[in-house]
Specification:
By secondary structure, the chain is an alpha+beta fold. It has two domains: about 170 residues, Sandwich (Immunoglobulin-like), CATH 2.60.40; about 110 residues, Neutral Protease, domain 2. Helices cover about 15% and strands about 35% of the residues. The strands form four sheets. Strands 4-7-2-1-11-14-13 form a seven-stranded mixed β-sheet. A hairpin with a 2-residue loop joins strand 16 and strand 17. The radius of gyration is 20 Å and the shape is globular. The N and C termini lie far apart (about 50 Å).
C-alpha cells in the first residue's frame, strides 16, 4: 500500500487543557489505493472490554497535503472513516475529548495530560507494518515535561519527537505530559522510572526502596536476556480510583493518593500501601507473562471488535497463584 520508505506521521497538541481536549494532525503519504480506511480501536490490550474510544472524537476533517483542497470522506461505522484519496497524500485533523480518569483511555486537566494511543491514533487498514512518527507539541499551559517509554529522537524548545516500528508499537506506550513527581532507579542495568501525577508529596524515596526487591525478584525469576532496558511505573493519583494496565515497557496505574506514604509519615506499611506495591508487582509481571508470553489469539488481536477467549484466568489469575 505504501512505498517501503514511507512513514505515517502524527502530531499531537494540547492547546486547551481546560476543555479536556487534544488535537491530532495525521499525515498519510501517497499510496497505491483509491480509498483509505481509518479506524480507531474499540478496546485496549490488557483491558478486555469494548470501550468505544471513537465516541470521544468530536471534530474530524480531511484535506489534501497542500491544504488547498478538501478530500471526500464518510463515516463507514462508529469507529471507521473512509477517505476517497485516489492514491494522493492527505492530512486528517481531529479533536479528542479526554476526561476519563482511568488507565485505559485519556484524561487532561489543569495539571497534566495522560493519553493512551488507542484513544488517540487512527490506524490505516492494511498498513500494519508501516513505521510511525509521533511529534508532541510542547504545551504552553502545562509543565513542559513528558514521560513515555517510546524512544525519543528529538527534544527541542517547541516539541518532542518519537519513533515506533509500526502501529501496534505506537499504541503500546502511554504518554504523560505535565506536573509530576518522578525518580529513576537501576536494578541490574535496567532503568526503572517511578512517576506520580500532580503535586502530592509522596515519599518517593521510600517507594523506590520498597520496589527494588520486587524488581530484583521478577528479573531473577524470568532471567536474561531482559526484555526491556527502561521501564516506567506511571501512576495517576486520585481520590478513590484503582487500576493497572500493562504495556511493553511500562505500566499505567491509578491509585488513591492518601493510601500511599507521604513525606513525614511513619515507616509503617499500611494495607493500602501494601496493595499498591502488590499492584506494581502484578503489572511488572505482565511484562513477561501477557505482553511477551501469550496465546496465539492475543499475538495480533482484532482491536476493532470483541475477541473471545476462555483464557483470561491465565492472563490475570496466574500471578495470584504464584504469590
Amino acid at each position: 500500500m505504501f512505498p517501503t520508505d514511507s512513514k505515517i506521521q502524527y502530531q499531537l497538541a494540547i492547546p486547551n487543557p481546560e476543555y479536556h481536549e487534544f488535537t491530532i494532525e495525521m499525515t498519510v503519504p501517497a499510496h497505491s489505493s483509491e480509498s483509505v480506511m481509518l479506524t480507531l480501536p474499540a478496546w485496549i490490550p490488557g483491558s478486555y472490554m469494548i470501550r468505544d474510544f471513537a465516541k470521544s472524537i468530536v471534530t474530524f476533517d480531511v484535506q489534501s497535503l497542500d491544504g488547498n483542497n478538501t478530500v471526500a470522506w464518510h463515516k463507514a461505522d462508529k469507529q471507521t472513516w473512509a477517505i476517497e484519496s485516489h492514491g494522493n497524500a492527505f492530512t486528517v485533523l481531529y479533536t479528542v475529548y479526554a476526561n476519563d480518569l482511568s488507565i485505559r483511555s485519556a484524561f487532561i486537566n489543569h495539571e497534566y495530560a495522560f493519553i493512551n494511543g488507542t484513544s488517540a491514533f487512527l490506524q490505516i487498514e492494511g498498513s500494519d507494518e508501516t513505521p510511525c512518527e509521533l511529534t508532541v507539541i510542547k504545551p504552553n499551559t502545562l509543565n513542559p515535561l513528558i514521560e513515555t517509554s517510546l524512544p525519543m529522537s528529538i527534544d527541542s524548545d517547541s516539541l518532542w519527537q518519537f519513533t515506533s516500528t509500526n502501529y501496534d508499537d505506537l499504541i503500546d506506550h502511554p504518554l504523560f505530559v505535565g506536573e509530576s513527581l518522578s525518580q529513576s532507579f537501576w536494578v541490574d542495568g535496567i532503568e526503572f522510572v517511578l512517576l506520580f501525577s500532580g503535586t502530592t508529596p509522596v515519599d518517593i524515596e521510600r517507594v523506590t526502596k520498597d520496589l527494588i526487591p520486587i524488581c530484583e525478584h521478577h528479573l531473577s525469576l524470568f532471567g536474561k536476556p531482559y526484555p526491556v532496558t527502561r521501564y516506567v511505573f506511571m501512576t495517576l493519583l486520585s481520590e478513590s480510583g484503582y487500576g493497572g494496565l500493562e504495556h511493553m515497557s511500562s505500566t499505567a496505574l491509578l491509585y488513591p493518593r492518601y493510601d500511599l506514604p507521604l513525606m513525614g509519615e511513619s515507616d509503617e506499611k499500611s494495607d493500602g500501601y501494601i496493595t499498591f506495591l502488590s499492584l506494581c508487582s502484578h503489572e511488572l509481571f505482565h511484562t513477561w507473562h501477557v505482553k511477551r508470553i501469550k496465546p496465539a489469539i492475543m499475538v495480533t488481536p482484532d482491536l476493532s471488535q470483541e475477541t473471545y477467549t476462555n483464557q483470561l484466568w491465565i492472563y490475570e489469575g496466574f500471578y495470584e497463584l504464584l504469590r
